[in-house]
Design a protein that fits this description.
single chain, globular, 71% helix, 0% strand
Length: 278
């Protein structure tokens, strides 16, 4: 049966709807459970049998949501800012200078993609202590920047090579623009699509990461949202409060969802244009 026939199209649409429904089931369970009271432990597949915001109120209060939200915003925004600046500045000479050294730097940054930060965590902690860097709520920023630079530099390099004509820079150079001015006033505005892609990809990872935050942050009031959510998992004496945990998950995901909706039109364009050439 050909896929272009009416029956083939109908079967394709049915298959797509089935796949969409299967993927929506976990989201429906989370939303339905979050709208129940914390004590309502009926079958989670019995969707929307209660409508109350008690679980949201409990999650908001117990996880100190405004403080945790502010901690996440600070960690994410500061980390993403330095990632954008450092990765763009590193990618520009790699993309423009044609030499063996620039090729070596490109491969050097790419090698960072295959080495997860968790593997070198202990040496990094020892180095941080040796340098006298204080261990506080801002220490994870160093790990976020280090782990984000390889992928971000890769995106910027590909985008500059394929999406920024050198003739524009040559014209600016003839007009007397220096290297610093050419980069920040001409090149950087042109790479805004890939900048948005870096902000989204690395921002989502940094926002949702709890490993580095859990390692470096010891005070509960300094914890960002993912670490603050761990208090609802419970233990052997105190069972997990799933309804409150699901409500906390929605509260944590809501700021990211709003940011993605605002930047989604740049997301696909930045990734596809940045990956045309390597």
């Amino acid at each position: 049966m050909r896929s272009g026939s009416p029956i083939g199209k109908l079967l394709t649409h049915i298959a797509i709807l089935v796949l969409v429904f299967i993927n929506l089931i976990p989201l429906l369970i989370v939303l339905s459970s979050s709208l129940r009271s914390p004590r309502n432990m009926t079958n989670p597949l019995n969707w929307f049998n209660e409508f109350t915001l008690d679980s949201f109120q409990s999650a908001f209060t117990r996880m100190h949501f405004p403080t945790a939200l502010w901690n996440s915003v600070v960690l994410t925004s500061v980390s993403v800012f330095f990632v954008v600046v450092l990765a763009a500045m590193a990618a520009y000479p790699i993309a423009r200078i044609r030499s063996r050294f620039s090729k070596f730097l490109y491969v050097f940054f790419l090698s960072g993609l295959v080495i997860p930060g968790q593997m070198v965590l202990i040496p990094i902690i020892q180095m941080i202590k040796g340098l006298g860097i204080p261990m506080n709520q801002y220490t994870p920023i160093l790990m976020f920047i280090t782990c984000s630079l390889p992928f971000s530099t890769f995106l910027y390099t590909g985008f500059i090579r394929s999406g920024v004509p050198e003739e524009i820079e040559e014209a600016a150079h003839i007009d007397g623009a220096g290297l610093f001015r050419r980069f920040w006033q001409i090149v950087f505005p042109l790479i805004m699509p890939v900048t948005v892609s870096v902000i989204i990809t690395q921002g989502v990872w940094i926002w949702n990461d709890y490993f580095f935050n859990m390692v470096f942050i010891t005070k509960s009031l300094d914890a960002p949202l993912p670490v603050a959510m761990l208090g609802f998992l419970g233990d052997q004496q105190n069972p997990a409060q799933w309804n409150v945990l699901f409500a906390a998950c929605i509260l944590c995901a809501l700021p990211l969802l709003l940011a993605f909706l605002a930047l989604q039109k740049y997301f696909v364009g930045g990734l596809t244009m940045g990956s045309v050439k390597g």
